[in-house]
Design a protein that fits this description.
By secondary structure, the chain is an alpha+beta fold. Helix content is 58%, strand content 10%. The protein has 6 helices and 6 strands, in the order ββαββαααααββ. The chain has 2 domains: 64 residues, no CATH class; 99 residues. The two termini are 75 Å apart. The N terminus is likely disordered. Keywords: Membrane, Transmembrane, Transmembrane helix.
């Protein structure tokens, strides 16, 4: 007997065996990775909940904080000579004497090259004399003012010697490392481990604290 249909719902009987294979079809269960994080512990009297920040803090924030701090301290120690301006002043005195000797030697070589008419050698020795003059001028900046050498005096000397960019890049890198280290310390101190929430069934209270 054909009962026909009413709208989208059929009124025609269907045998159950038609869907039996579909009902018995196995569902593939995809294994999930164990997060290894005890989000919840429970016993007869107490239910404890917490977030996953515990593991992230101990395995990411703390190691990075320690590593960046050690690197920053190492850079401070390694670059301490860069900011010992009195040592730079003493070295400048030695370098001035050395370049004066080089200049005198180049002048002698230039005179010999001019006598021989060797234009290529003349150009080489003229460049040597110019470099010596520039170095003497740069190192002499340390002695323009009496008293201790300041940072700005040191930077003026480096600019004359063509070494200012290297000095500024070192300061920039040190500042970047210091900022990263400070940021990790602030994250460590201002955001401690997330509090565990305790549901105590015996005392009928919910309590928590940060640690």
């Amino acid at each position: 007997m054909n009962r026909g249909s009413q709208g989208i719902f059929t009124t025609k009987a269907q045998p159950f065996s038609k869907w039996w294979a579909q009902f018995r079809a196995e569902v593939i269960v995809v294994p999930m990775k164990d997060p290894l994080e005890p989000f919840m512990t429970v016993n007869d009297n107490l239910l404890t909940l917490r977030t996953g920040y515990h593991t992230r803090r101990n395995t990411i924030v703390v190691p990075w904080m320690l590593m960046l701090t050690i690197l920053t301290l190492y850079f401070i120690y390694a670059s301490s000579y860069e900011y010992d301006f009195e040592s730079h002043k003493a070295q400048a005195a030695r370098m001035i004497e050395s370049y004066k000797e080089d200049k005198a030697r180049y002048i002698s070589y230039l005179s010999d090259a001019q006598k021989e008419g060797d234009k290529e050698e003349e150009d080489i020795f003229r460049r040597g004399i110019a470099l010596a003059d520039n170095a003497i001028k740069g190192y002499s900046i340390y002695f323009e003012q009496d008293g201790d050498v300041s940072l700005f005096t040191h930077m003026r000397a480096l600019k004359q010697l063509g070494e200012l960019d290297h000095f500024l890049s070192g300061i920039g890198f040190f500042s970047f490392m210091g900022a990263l280290s400070l940021g990790m310390w602030l994250l460590f101190l201002l955001k401690p481990q997330d509090a565990e929430v305790y549901f105590d069934r015996n005392r009928q209270i919910v309590y928590s604290w940060r640690h």
